[in-house]
User: Which sequence fits this backbone?
């Protein structure tokens, strides 16, 4: 394979078109298991027994082979225990992990960037501070609810099964160590509740719910959700853009950036995140005020500045564990200059073992010289004759970037993603043709500008004020 | 669109739409009911817990201290009407109508309220008020939880969407 020209940071979209050996078979095994969860494992039918066997066969030759075969057999007999279901979740995760790895190799060829050498640590079972008895029982309660889901299946969902998560999630949310799993379960349960009764649902998002279910199952294993800090970062941080995630009661902003260590070692890609719980009526640009006080980097993004880091904790996966005490504002830094000049030389971070999943792929890329057009599925950038789908639905309403601006763009900073069998690019910022003005999805992160943004922030602030007033009166009693 | 059933990031529920919360600080479609908390028009210290059950449209309304609402003896009181209006603002009429199983070609708050009233629903005897009120308090607690700067990789499965309710 010919790597992308390291001198121009533009991604080689043609190298994403190749087929990956074994990919279809791996995904077919995943789909087979996902259909098992659609019907549930309470009274398995022959089709489900076959689906379970298919998954177990897919991990043949790995350390999971023997336990997966046993778990599949017991589940097919309608006698799966919690441990068996954990093994099946692990087997499914392992298959998707191999898909992730194959996709990342293809992506590295397209971007021409080196993959970080540092081995991923963060083995399950790693350090987790005290009070473990209470935590262990909450994790157990979460796992027990997930097993109830697996037994009823998505088609057997009813309000009684779904509402079983509420007390567990409430208790978990209060503990920052369990926040990861709590946030997942909360968003998952809200979706399940909206689709009750499952028997009447028009269709079922089988891959998605099996993803969320198996991920949650693995996170109930003690220590699995730990995010071990493996070092510190001192040097210059050059932001590329902001990726926003949200469900009804949580929002996360993730800043992708190039980090240039002060010691002169090679630059690398890093992320900084902030995640806040929220009431479901705080939406759109109203989420930024919840996040802003905890990540000074958001203001730097809006101001077009770099930041200077001193001893910022960082994980092996390139996640900065942000604390404002370790950062101060730097000089002006245009993300497009960063994308053109600094991004090509930055090494890709490695992925934590548990995070090896195609949906977790979010690789910063720079695109230029493409033709923007549409096909039956929506917006497409044609890069050197090769079409690349543009996921403009992922452009958040919480910023000034719009699908229209993306469609009229000449250069784009984005995140390369993969879902449902295809690559796509999620735009983080574009330069429009003609005036070459830049528009960033995260432009309002540090402070909304323009009528729409200011109004949305005001509306959210009013909503929060009403809730606080109500809480003040009613929680006192 | 890629195959929805094989998409890890398939959008299942559209985000809520922002609305003013003064009239009804809490509205949700949960437990097979449209339920929520409606502020009293006259007493700032009082709220009403109101609900309508999907399918049967059985209704209930009482204060947070469990006193029955005088307006909800034989039919929907004003609190329940407010609840339906605010739910339509938050979730869109289509989603509320589907959840409550009100069959109308082009539902809006008024036509839905009329259609459910015409079915002469009975008062709901299940005493869900305490559950609804505790869910409201749980909802308020989201404001008190501290944000974290450790990454939550699971939120990669929850991208924003421009789809609206
Ligand atoms: Zn009433």
Assistant:
């Amino acid at each position: 394979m010919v790597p992308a020209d390291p001198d121009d940071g533009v991604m080689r979209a043609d190298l994403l078109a190749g087929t990956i050996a074994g990919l279809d078979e791996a995904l077919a095994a995943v789909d087979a298991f996902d259909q098992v969860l659609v019907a549930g494992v309470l009274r398995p039918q022959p089709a489900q027994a076959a689906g379970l066997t298919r998954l177990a066969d897919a991990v043949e030759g790995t350390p999971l082979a023997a336990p997966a075969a046993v778990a599949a057999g017991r589940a097919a007999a309608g006698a799966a225990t919690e441990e068996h279901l954990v093994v099946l979740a692990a087997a499914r995760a392992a298959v998707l992990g191999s898909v992730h790895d194959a996709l990342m190799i293809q992506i590295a060829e397209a971007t021409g960037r080196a993959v970080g050498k540092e081995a991923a640590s963060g083995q399950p079972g790693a350090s987790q501070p005290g009070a473990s008895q209470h935590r262990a029982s909450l994790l157990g309660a979460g796992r027990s609810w997930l097993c109830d889901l697996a037994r009823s299946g998505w088609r057997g969902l009813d309000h009684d099964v779904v509402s079983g998560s509420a007390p567990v999630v409430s208790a978990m949310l209060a503990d920052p160590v369990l926040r990861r799993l709590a946030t997942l379960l909360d968003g998952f349960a809200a979706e399940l509740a909206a689709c009750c009764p499952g028997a009447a649902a028009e269709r079922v998002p089988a891959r998605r719910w099996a993803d969320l279910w198996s991920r949650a199952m693995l996170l109930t294993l003690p220590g699995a959700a730990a995010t071990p800090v493996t070092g510190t970062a001192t040097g210059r941080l050059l932001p590329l853009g902001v990726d926003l995630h949200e469900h009804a009661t949580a929002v996360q902003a993730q800043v992708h950036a190039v980090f240039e260590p002060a010691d002169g070692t090679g630059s690398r890609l890093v992320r900084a995140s902030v995640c806040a719980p929220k009431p479901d009526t705080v939406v759109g640009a109203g989420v930024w005020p919840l996040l802003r006080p905890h990540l000074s980097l958001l203001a730097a993004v809006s101001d077009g500045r770099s930041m200077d880091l001193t001893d910022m904790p960082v994980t092996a996966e390139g996640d900065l564990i942000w604390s404002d005490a370790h950062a101060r504002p730097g000089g002006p830094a245009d993300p497009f200059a960063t994308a053109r000049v600094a991004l090509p030389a930055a090494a890709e971070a490695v992925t934590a073992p548990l995070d090896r999943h195609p949906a977790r792929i979010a690789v910063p890329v720079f695109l230029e010289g493409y033709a923007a057009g549409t096909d039956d599925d929506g917006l497409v950038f044609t890069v050197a004759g090769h079409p690349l789908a543009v996921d403009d639905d992922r452009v958040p309403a919480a910023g000034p970037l719009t699908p229209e601006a993306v469609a009229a763009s000449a250069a784009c900073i984005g995140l390369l993603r993969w879902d449902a069998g295809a690559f796509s690019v999620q735009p983080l910022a574009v330069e429009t043709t003609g005036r070459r003005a830049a528009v960033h999805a995260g432009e309002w992160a540090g402070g909304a500008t323009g009528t729409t943004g200011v109004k949305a922030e005001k509306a959210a602030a009013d909503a929060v004020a009403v809730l606080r007033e109500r809480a003040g009166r009613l929680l006192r009693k | 669109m890629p195959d929805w059933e094989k998409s890890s990031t398939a959008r299942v529920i559209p985000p809520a739409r922002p609305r003013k919360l003064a009239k009804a600080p809490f509205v949700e479609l949960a437990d097979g009911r449209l339920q929520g908390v409606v502020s009293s028009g006259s007493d700032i210290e009082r709220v009403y817990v109101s609900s309508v059950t999907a399918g049967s449209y059985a209704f209930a309304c009482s204060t947070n201290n469990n006193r029955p609402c005088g307006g909800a003896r034989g039919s929907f009181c004003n609190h329940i009407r407010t609840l339906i209006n605010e739910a339509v603002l938050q979730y869109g009429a289509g989603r509320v109508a589907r959840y409550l199983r009100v069959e109308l070609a082009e539902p809006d708050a008024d036509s839905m309220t009329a259609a459910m009233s015409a079915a002469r629903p009975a008062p709901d005897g299940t005493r869900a008020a305490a559950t609804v009120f505790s869910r409201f308090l749980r909802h308020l607690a989201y404001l008190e939880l501290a944000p974290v700067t450790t990454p939550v990789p699971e939120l990669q499965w929850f991208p924003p969407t421009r789809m609206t309710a």
Remarks:
- Residues 230-345 of chain A form one domain.
- Chain A is about 40% helix and 20% strand.
- Chain A has four domains: 15-28+42-112, 128-225, 230-345, 354-440.
